[in-house]
Amino acid sequence: MSTYDARFRIWRGDADGGGLTDYTVEVHDGEVVLDIVHRLQATQAPDLAVRWNCKAGKCGSCSAEINGRPRLLCMTRMSVFARDETVTITPMRAFPVIRDLVTDVSFNYAKAREIPAFVPPAGLAPGEYRMKQEDVDRSQEFRKCIECFLCQNTCHVVRDHEENKPVFAGPRFLMRIAELDMHPLDAAEDSGLDRRRTAQDDHGLGYCNITKCCTEVCPEDIAITDNALIPMKERVVDRRYDPVVWLGNRIRRRNGA
Ligand code: SF4
Ligand code: SF4
Ligand code: FES
Predict the structure, then answer these.
(1) Ligand nearest to the Cα of 148, by number
(2) 111 and 137 in one domain?
(3) Residue 226 in this model has a pLDDT that exceeds 90
(4) SS3 for 161?
């Protein structure tokens, strides 16, 4: 087994400010960046804060930025960097820092709570639901999400624009609305909930200009933009310019509804 010493530059600080600190840490064959952070804690910086749980790319806790790119610390192999390269690790930029590499991601939990859950179809009990396999496959892709929030952190609509946060749910949660809107058994409309309208009017779908940056950083390789956001935008437009819907809205307005 070969080992070598690698240079790291890690952001240390808290909500009041901080800066990059240089370290030299031993690296062993096959290690990932989280291994190095753990060795650093064990040997030089026991107070270095980092959030992690599974070390298997499944819990979504170890999100950070490595050389400026949003990534999971536990799924980034050291072998992707040259041995003489300085590896810089910083916390996610779109969320407030708590300490060192740990950020406060509660923005995402607040957005999750704003999205109404699946509305079960009337007259059918769980176990009686029947769906086509292609519909199952479609939502299965979105359900691979591990809620790492790397896509949320990357999206330019909020990354440098704190002021957009109240009106923009972000790709992860626009994808959730799209998933529910595509669900053949979701009975939201029957209960008066128009998911397309809320996506556009309440959750900021119109801010998304389909740059696909969210898709590029997703560790689950979910085609967020192509399979969720673009189809959702198309359905919003279909609804808005559907002549039957247009006529219905006119009549409702005329009747003062
Ligand atoms: S595709 Fe839309 S949601 Fe994704 S990063 Fe770009 S603007 Fe944000
Ligand atoms: S969609 Fe991908 S990048 Fe976004 S939170 Fe889920 S797993 Fe992470
Ligand atoms: S520690 Fe769970 S995804 Fe990295």
Answers:
(1) 2
(2) yes
(3) yes
(4) coil
For the CA of 146, the nearest atom of ligand 3: 3
Which pTM does this prediction carry? 0.92
- The CATH number for 69's domain is 3.10.20.30
Same domain for 218 and 189: yes
Predicted local confidence at residue 235, as pLDDT: 93
Structure confidence at residue 69 (pLDDT): 97
The position carrying tokens 């979701």 is 186
Question: Does the structure show a pLDDT above 60 at 210?
Answer: yes
> Phi and psi dihedrals of 5, rounded to 5?
-95, 125
* Pocket lining for ligand 2, CB < 6 angstroms: 145-151, 172, 217-220, 222, 224
**For ligand 3, mutation pick of 62, 77, 92, 218 (most atoms within 8 Å of CB):** 62
- Cβ neighbour number for residue 42 with a 10 Å cutoff: 9
Question: Which atom of ligand 3 lies closest to the CA of 72?
Answer: 4
CA-closest residue to ligand 3 atom 3? 57
Residue 241's domain spans which residues? Answer: 106-254
148 and 239 inside one domain: yes
Amino acid at 153: N
For 119, the 3-state DSSP assignment is coil
